[in-house]
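Re: weekly structure request thread

Next one in the queue (101 aa):
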Amino acid sequence: MPLQSPQQIEEGILELCSEDDWGSWGFWWNTSADTPKDEILELKLRFLNVITDLVAAGKLIPKHEAPNGKLIVTQYDRNKLSRELDSAYDSQPHFFWFVIE
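Done, posted below.
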């Protein structure tokens, strides 16, 4: 299966967010599910570029979970998101969440 194009990644993310807030790990699982291991790095770079562009355009709003469980708007950090993708299959509680405007 060929790597998803940036347009396919964007469409998938916006479709998921049209339903509800989504965690970064959920986007990544959905995007990378059928990708061969030797193509993951290229896909990750595309994915990060798409998220960064969507946030910069104001189409995607980054959030984090506050101690009270509510999602609040936060500053986007591409490096933090990159680290989250690397640990998407670990159980870590402080991932980015995203919602569309």
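The helical segments are 6-17, 24-32, 40-56, 78-86. Residues 6-100 form one domain.
Next request, please.
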